[in-house]
Design a protein that fits this description.
With 385 residues, the protein is an alpha/beta fold. Among the domains are: 129 residues, Rossmann fold (3-Layer(aba) Sandwich); 136 residues, Dihydrodipicolinate Reductase, domain 2 (2-Layer Sandwich). It contains twelve helices and 14 strands. The strands form two sheets. It has a nine-stranded mixed sheet. A five-stranded parallel sheet has the order 2-1-3-4-5, with helices on both faces. Strand 3, helix 4 and strand 4 form a beta-alpha-beta unit.
Length: 385
């Protein structure tokens, strides 16, 4: 495959997610870092981009300058990653899609359901890829788990239980820390705090591994640290289109939990579980049998898992390479389109604009439910009902 050209908006010096994207995009040699607008401060962004190897004429001051500059080039970038503050995702993603660029957007894809529906329509009309960085779905053993469930290894799925809970915002004395405060401020975070920040990762994972979508949900929100306008703890019950029952807990005040993303799936003839802090293993038990530990890198894994594994058995690949696996999928999809060939079907599991839209619809549904005392509400975007 010929190397593709990649650019980034946001994710500059000091960014939490920027380094993971830069490592991930270049990990397998599929993308060259060619263009960037990395910071709200134009000069700071230009200077930092050049330290990362971006040429002076493609180290842009802001995303509008980058869009104009790249659109005019014959060697324009093949993919742009949007890693800016949440409220800017829609405007930037929309503009690049409409200009004919493929986009990988950080989550949440948009701030409203209506914006999400616009992005889905624009992506379809443009014929370009719009992916969303739900990178936990790209761990090799998550892909293996999904493939086994799809093959009927645990029978019809009855129940899925997911959580994404940590205790890193539990200290009330840190309430005014800017890195914490914005997450609970509606002016910056939108209608939801922890559910929109972490809960949607767990919810997407539940849909991904089961191959099903959330239809209705009932939510209970709590703001347990005084002064927070948005929730720092949420419990969500949901029902899926195929009849699966779901339970989701997400929290930032769970002292003692660190990253805290895990998923369990229970079917008629077996069950499986995976935790992001132990990403190399899937625990699997057949009805009436003993628990088996399936290891990344061992013989007999599904092609969905082996194509995304780089190191030998017993060696964890970790979060940056889960992000890299999204770029592996996108490189295959973009490269196939440029070459006029069909892509590897396994590469099409990357999270798409429709997934970003469903996530935002679920967030708004959870907010409405919590305000209504846990009433059951439709969690589907209007365009998918």
């Amino acid at each position: 495959m010929a190397q593709l050209s990649w650019g980034m908006v946001g994710g500059g010096e000091g960014s939490q997610i920027g380094p993971a994207h830069r490592l991930g995009a270049r990990a397998d040699g599929h993308f060259a870092f060619a263009a960037a607008a990395l910071d709200a401060n134009p000069e700071k962004g230009r200077a930092y981009a050049q330290t990362l190897g971006v040429a002076l004429d493609r180290a842009y001051g802001d995303w509008r300058e980058m869009l104009a500059g790249e659109r005019a080039r014959e060697d324009r970038i093949d993919l742009v990653t949007v890693a800016t503050p949440n409220a800017t995702h829609f405007e930037i993603t929309k503009a690049f899609l409409e200009a004919g660029f493929n986009v990988l957007c950080e989550k949440p894809m948009t701030m409203t359901v209506e914006e999400g529906e616009d992005i889905v329509r624009i992506a379809e009309a443009s014929g370009r890829i719009c992916a969303v960085n739900y990178c936990y779905s790209a761990y090799p053993m998550v892909r293996h788990m999904r493939a086994l469930i799809a093959a009927g290894e645990i029978g019809k799925v009855r129940l899925v239980v997911a959580s994404f809970s940590h205790g890193h915002h539990a200290d009330a004395a840190q309430a005014d820390n800017p890195r914490v405060r914005w997450r609970y401020d509606p002016a910056m975070a939108g209608v939801s705090g922890q559910m929109a920040d972490c809960g949607i990762h767990a919810l997407h994972l539940a849909s991904f591994v089961t191959g099903d979508e959330v239809e209705t949900l009932s939510a209970d929100f709590a703001s347990l640290v005084p002064g927070r306008e948005l929730e720092d703890d949420a419990m969500v019950n949901f029902r899926m289109l195929g009849g699966t029952v779901g339970r989701l807990w997400t929290s930032t005040v769970a002292i003692g939990r660190q990253h805290g993303l895990d998923i369990q799936v229970f079917g008629e003839t077996g069950g499986m579980r995976w935790a992001q802090e132990q990403p190399n293993q899937v625990y699997y038990q057949r009805l009436g049998g003993r628990t088996e530990i399936i290891e990344k890198g061992e013989e007999g894994l599904t092609p969905d898992a082996t194509r995304l594994s780089r190191v030998v058995i017993g060696s964890p690949e970790g979060f940056p390479l889960a992000v890299a696996n999204i770029y592996v999928d996108l490189a295959e999809a973009i490269g196939a389109a440029k070459a006029g060939r069909a892509p590897d079907p396994a590469a099409l599991h990357y999270p798409k604009a429709a997934d970003g839209l469903r996530s935002m619809a679920a967030v708004y549904a959870a907010v409405d439910s919590a305000k209504s005392g846990g009433a059951w509400v439709d969690a589907r975007p209007p365009m998918f009902r």
